[in-house]
Amino acid sequence: MSPQDFYRARDTLLMAQAYAYFDESGTDEKSPDLVVAGYIFLSENVAPFEAEWRAMLEKFGLPFFHAVECMHGTGVFKHLTLEERTAAQIEAIEIIKKYGAKGIALSINKMVFPTIGRPALWSTPYTFLCGQVLFGVRNWADAIGFHGEVEYVYEAGADGQSQAAEETAHALLSDESLQVFRYGKHRHATKTEDVGLQAADLLAWHWYTHNRRIKEGKGKRKDFQNLMGLRVDFHHYDEPAVKLWNSVVPIIKPAMQWLQNWRPPTHSSLYTLFGPINLNEKPAD
Questions:
Q1: Which three-class secondary structure state does DSSP give residue 150?
Q2: What is the pLDDT along the chain (285 residues), one digit of tens a residue?
Q3: Are 68 and 31 in contact (CB under 8 A)?
Q4: What CA–CA distance (Å, rounded) separates 237 from 118?
Q5: Phi, psi (5° rounding) for residue 42?
Q6: Which is it for strands 232-237 and 102-109: parallel, antiparallel or unpaired?
Q7: Measured between alpha carbons, how far is 22 from 82 in angstroms, rounded to an integer?
Q8: Where are the alpha helices (DSSP H) in 188-274?
Q9: 65 backbone φψ class: left, alpha, beta (φ>0; ψ -120 to 50)
Q10: 117 φ, ψ to 5°?
Q11: What is the DSSP-derived secondary structure letter of residue 109?
Q12: Contact 96, 18 (CB under 8 A)
């Protein structure tokens, strides 16, 4: 890559916008786990993604894509054969892999949520996972050098929707937090209004199903493996993970705040030897 191409690519990421669509699975009382999962799309890929997705829906005579109905041949998929449903899902997965930037799939065992200690910012498993989504988007943005704004889109009508919005707003009170999470705004929409939520629904169903299959001693489904053709960051909060959370967060948070606020004294020997320290600078390879 030439220097001109490098700076052009950098400037594109500085001015870019992205959309992050998230859906949930396992909201019924019988489900032991709750999932919030979805995809990030760069703004220039949203229009072609939506066009190809809607063409896929029209091809198979579908008003929208709903994963659980696709898998079982019910609802809007009941007029399709197993082969046709399989073909529809394969086409949907290929469209996601073609236009998606990153997938994020998070889940929590509902029974262990009450044991999560401080900071006790999140009041329900759903609001907790919506909060962790912010960190997933931050990690993606940091990794590729994305400094634009992200519009977070969640499915309308989700249980705990208003609480998630309120608690997310509280978490983003400072301008620094807005920048860290590349937060532009968040909103709620139906799956028919934003087809990105239909893609999110597919990932949420697969991540929930994969967790269940792991507990049953089963391997990965082939369609799940195909869906992983686009990199997805996963995390499941079970009892060991929550214990780790409780032990690490009280240590890391003050330490990170101290590091962010620390500056070398003007006349210190370290400052004289090495110059000012940039805490955001990546270490050399």
A1: strand
A2: 444 444 344 444 445 799 999 999 998 889 999 999 999 999 999 999 999 999 999 999 999 999 999 999 999 999 999 999 999 999 999 999 999 999 999 999 999 998 887 555 677 888 888 888 888 999 999 999 999 999 999 988 766 555 555 666 555 555 566 788 888 888 889 999 999 999 999 999 999 999 999 989 998 999 999 999 999 999 999 999 888 877 876 655 554 454 445 444 333 333 333 333 333 344 444
A3: no
A4: 15
A5: -65, 145
A6: parallel
A7: 27
A8: 196-215, 222-227, 239-261, 269-274
A9: beta
A10: -85, -155
A11: E
A12: no
Structure tokens at 279: 């805490």
DSSP 283: P
CA–CA gap between residue 45 and residue 37 (Å, rounded): 19
Strand ranges of the sheet holding 183-189, from the earlier edge strand across to the other edge:
183-189, 149-155, 17-25, 33-42, 102-109, 232-237
Read off the pTM. Answer: 0.80
Both tokens of residue 198? Answer: 């239909």
Question: DSSP letter at 41?
Answer: E
Distance CA 76, CA 84 (A): 13
- Cα(33)–Cα(93) distance, rounded to whole angstroms? 24
Q: Is 127 helix (H, G, I), strand (E, B) or coil?
A: helix
190 burial (CB, 10 Å; 0-12 / 13-18 / 19+) is exposed
Burial of 236 (0-12, 13-18, 19+ CB in 10 A): middle
Both tokens assigned to 240: 């060991």
User: How many C-beta atoms lie closer than 10 Å to residue 192's C-beta?
Assistant: 11
